[in-house]
Amino acid sequence: MRNATKIDVFSSLGPTAEEICRQVERILASEEFHAPKRGRNFLEFVVSETLAGRSGFLKAFTIANMVFGREASFDPQNDPVVRIEAGRIRKALERYYLVAGQADDVIITVPKGGYVPHFEYTRDASVPVRPEKDPENPRIEEFEDQGHSPQATSPPAPIARHLGTGLLAILLLLALASAFLVAGGARIRPLPPKASLPTVAVEVFAESSSVDSSSDIARGLRDDLIGQLAQLDDIVVVADPPMGDRATAADYALQGNVQTDGSRLRSVARLVRRADGAVIWANNFDADLRAQNKLWIQSNVARQITGAVARPHGAIFQAETAMIAQPAQKADQDSHACIPAYYSYLQAMTVQSHGAVRECLQQALRRTPDDATSWALLSLVYLDEIRFRYKLGTPSSAEPLELATASAQRAASLAPDNPRVLRAVMLVNFFRGDIDKALAAGTAAYAADPDDVEVAGEYGLRLAMSGKWQSGCELISMALDKNAGPRGYYEAGMAMCAFMRGDIEAAEQWSRISDLDCNPMRHLALLSILGAAGKMDEAKLEQNWLQSHAPALMTNIRQEISLRLQRPADQERFFAGLRAAGVAVDLPSGG
Fold it and tell me: Biased composition, Basic and acidic residues: where in the chain (predicted)?
């Protein structure tokens, strides 16, 4: 029961340390506070340090060392891990106070521009002053403050309490509408024709136990799945298809059941293609009801299933590979039909599939020129003519980069907060040599959707190739753990991570398991690794392959590597491996 007597509405004093500690415990115990373990450690650390009178030491370097275990060499200018985690905690706190903490007496926030928490009583709250920019990295904070966070539309909880009930209701409705508009960069649009997007029916999950909690989790898991799948732009979710039209209501059915045995819980899920009844994906998910609460289990399992079946490279898009030969031949295709074709192209990456998906996107955008996602994909397709030109056989030209830049700019003008659009902006700027803009876009993309493993992995690669190896390689590893694809692309990234930290044995292992056998850049990286390892016979085999399959690359090594590795020290480490293997590397101009 609330103890209103402790609050003096005319007092300028803030909450006591005891009240703040109790509020932190309440927040951390709430099922509505969505933050991972290290985020919870972050919140506890900054609060305890502030209460101990050490708020002046709450800098990115201190937090990275004390909370995230970073080494003394940590550079906050180059590693955004603390800024990213702070952004996630701000969103988690905002959600908590909007959903579960509306009646709480103490408000805890972490204002933008720093990491020092702010404490206030509910009825003492005043409109916060816009914070000064973070002196550690004003560029990133400026980018964040300009509204690139999806949560920017929600009113802070302390302010909301001063508003009348009617006005508060209106603001909450507006916030919900805004959330639908900006979540994941999605735009509200008319439902596309059924032939355009794969449709998925999420069926009722069965329960294999008479225990009430099993039934609750089955219903909750289905609700969470529908909620997460509905946020994706590339599929249509059908919750309750018409009884008489089940055969044609959806292309795929997501089925499952929940089993309990004491404290053990198992969720079984499978994706069935309706056309022929084929099970194209299935998996089990185990949990311990004593270790995690039900809501966390539901959300976590739903997130894993969503990633496995509907994220880029998920089971649905792998099952749609037959579409790759169709787009260029159908004059009435819209842009949505090109999305499965794009992800199928990434798996094969042949001259034919590249030309087909490029033609598909070009034709579709003539009919639907306001589709930001398709402009972003087209930008990446153009950019591949530079990144993978030795594999695709495209000539050396400035035109693909110009087309990629124009397409990315068009996408950004339509949906500046869409993570896929920001990913395209990041890559275009990276290959244009504007690393600051590239990493700013990557930071925004990852902050907008940390669950998009392709965004996380690609951002990690750009961080690593820019010389921020520690933070970049952590993201690449995380993307691999979550089955990002094409897998070989990220395995090659892990090979470079190991190579740059001096672990030549691990670098060779990662490079050899990468399935990019036809990609000349992968063979060039392995050649450098083998040279550094002193394995001359094996290096000779790689060199012969390159001379046979990509002779132009062997005469243009320095330019191609400097396009990818931004730091001269990293470039020279790579060249040293090649020289050790007996490859002549041209000196830089003027050298």
Answer: 130-147
